[in-house]
């Protein structure tokens, strides 16, 4: 029995990064898939701390909030830096990734048709910040010399943006190389190539 269970809708969504992370860290986990029909009954929602999914279980510990889950996995699997200083920088970078993820989610769920063109035009202003941070660190990771949960979250967000705008990394060589190298890590590659991953839509409304 794997110790980990993810309870979520049949999308990549807010579980994309944690699944990539679990795969790369050689973990197995159980997927508990919630359908829309089941969710709207409300029984499960009533048990969720903030009334939302994902829910993540590590044995008898139940966690909500996708970034708290990533941090938990960072602590469990040595992907939270080498010391407190690095951990704080990783938190900072992950919050930056979350800001970009929220902009993306707003586009997808609220203004896809009217806002896509302007979003893609503005995207370099956001990607350039990650490009600069990654180039400055110069190790192939956002912080320090080893992979952290923030790298997995950045990878997930960048992969989604490459679907939205396939050329968006063409002017950002460091980010482009980051995506290529991370995606080629054997366990990440196997996960990204798996049906379990490929069959899931990125988002819950069919837009991507
Ligand atoms: C949706 O927003 O999937 N959770 C979502 N939606 C249902 O009743 N800050 C936290 C975190 O980081 C955000 C949680 C997040 O963990 S994620 C949730 O619980 C609710 O609020 C995006 C996603 N969307 C798919 C979706 C959910 C409801 C409508 C569309 C899937 C399709 C239909 C039902 C379930 Fe559907």
From TrEMBL:
Superkingdom: Eukaryota
KW Cytoplasm (keyword) present: yes
Pfam family, one: GST_C_3
Enzyme class: transferase
GST C-terminal domain segment(s): 83-202
Catalytic activity, reaction form: RX + glutathione = an S-substituted glutathione + a halide anion + H(+)
Domain GST N-terminal: 2-81
Gene Ontology CC: one annotated term: cytosol
Function, in words: Conjugation of reduced glutathione to a wide number of exogenous and endogenous hydrophobic electrophiles.
PANTHER family: GLUTATHIONE S-TRANSFERASE (PTHR11571:SF141)
Protein name: Glutathione S-transferase
This protein's encoding gene: GSTP1
């Amino acid at each position: 029995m794997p110790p980990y269970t993810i309870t979520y809708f049949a999308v990549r969504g807010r579980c994309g990064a944690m699944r990539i992370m679990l795969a790369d860290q050689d973990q197995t986990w159980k997927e508990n898939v919630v359908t829309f029909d089941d969710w709207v009954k409300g029984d499960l929602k009533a048990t969720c701390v903030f009334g939302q999914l994902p829910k993540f279980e590590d044995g008898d510990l139940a966690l909500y909030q996708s970034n708290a889950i990533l941090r938990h996995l960072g602590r469990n699997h040595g992907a939270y830096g080498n010391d407190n200083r690095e951990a704080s920088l990783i938190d900072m970078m992950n919050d930056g990734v979350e800001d970009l993820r929220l902009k993306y989610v707003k586009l997808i769920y609220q203004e896809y048709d009217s806002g896509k063109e302007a979003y893609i035009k503005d995207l370099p202003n956001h990607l350039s910040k990650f490009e600069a941070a990654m180039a400055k660190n110069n190790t192939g990771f956002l912080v320090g010399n080893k992979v952290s949960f923030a790298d997995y979250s950045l990878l997930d967000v960048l992969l989604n943006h490459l679907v939205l705008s396939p050329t968006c990394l063409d002017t950002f060589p460091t980010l482009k190389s980051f995506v290529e190298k991370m995606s080629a890590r054997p366990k990440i590659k196997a996960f990204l190539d798996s049906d379990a991953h490929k069959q899931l839509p990125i988002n819950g409304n069919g837009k991507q």
